[in-house]
Specification:
Blueprint (H helix, E strand, L loop, with lengths): L8 E3 L4 E6 L7 H12 L3 E4 L9 H4 L4 H17 L4 E7 L1 H12 L5 E4 L8 H19 L3 H12 L5 H13 L9 E6 L4 H4 L1 H8 L5 E6 L12 H13 L4
Parallel strand pairs: 2-3, 2-4, 4-5, 5-6, 6-7
Antiparallel strand pairs: 1-3
Helix pairs in contact: 4-7, 5-6
């Protein structure tokens, strides 16, 4: 079965714009429901798809965070070019790292970081995540188990140099959190891995703004935009955005 790759999306609304950022091995599909929710309430939302994402792992491994960060910056500049002067940024997982990085480098009205890692994850764990992504993608394509197994074995022999770069961008961002002065909302699923649950208080404590909030979701794991508490997540993001000085 041919898989239709997700795409970047833009939902035009009012003058207040929100840049939505997905995570590593994720796609804009992870942010689409949140984008619709905010757009229904008057916000313009734009979500860029990072290079290689939504495609087979064999293609994804030949891209890296420098290219994905360029996609983020291009997304911010797209909103500026479209005439939106007031921009907030919302990201999940690696997208949460990128949202914080945007907050250190560009003027934004507010920053929302969801389940973002600030502790450098081991490269082997990132490698395993890539392999898991590859298996799920191939299964979705309708390939039989023997074919999947053979293709995974070939993929495991491929060098994945960009995984170290993912760790570097996480570490660099964590060292610059004090450059963030915009209001900041940190959202974290309580059932997420410890790397993420331990990172949430670090982000909250290190950003240099008095207008900060940390919200825990007791029944949620990692992709809280699609979890069982997603409606509460959307509501909390909306409330945070509405309380910003636009």
């Amino acid at each position: 079965m041919k898989v239709i790759a997700p795409e970047s999306f833009t939902y035009k609304g009012g003058e207040r714009a929100v840049l939505l950022l997905h995570g590593f091995t994720g796609s804009t599909a992870d942010m689409k429901k949140l984008g619709r929710y905010l757009n229904d309430r008057g916000y313009t939302c734009h979500a860029p798809l990072y290079k290689g994402h939504g495609l087979p792992a064999e293609e994804l491994i030949h891209t890296g965070p420098k290219e994905w960060w360029k996609n983020v910056v291009d997304g911010y500049r797209f909103l500026k070019k479209e005439g939106y002067e007031d921009i907030a940024v919302v990201g999940i997982s690696l997208g949460g790292v990128f949202s914080l990085k945007v907050g250190t480098e560009f003027p934004v009205k507010g920053v929302v970081s969801m389940c973002a890692p600030m502790k450098g994850r081991d490269v082997s764990r990132l490698h395993n995540r890539m392999i898991s992504y590859a298996k799920a993608y191939k299964k979705f394509e309708g390939k039989d188990p023997d074919q999947i197994d053979a293709e995974i074995k070939r993929l495991e022999k491929e060098p994945m140099h960009s995984l170290k770069d993912v760790l570097h961008i996480i570490e660099d961002t964590s060292e610059n959190l004090d450059l963030i002065t915009a209001p900041t909302l940190v959202q974290q699923g309580r059932l997420d891995d410890s790397d993420y649950t331990e990172s949430a208080p670090m982000i909250f404590n290190d950003v240099d703004t008095q207008h900060r909030q940390l919200i825990w979701y007791e029944q949620s794991g990692h992709i809280i935009t699609l979890g069982k508490e997603r409606e509460q997540v959307y509501e909390d993001v909306h409330r945070f955005l509405n309380n910003l000085i636009w």
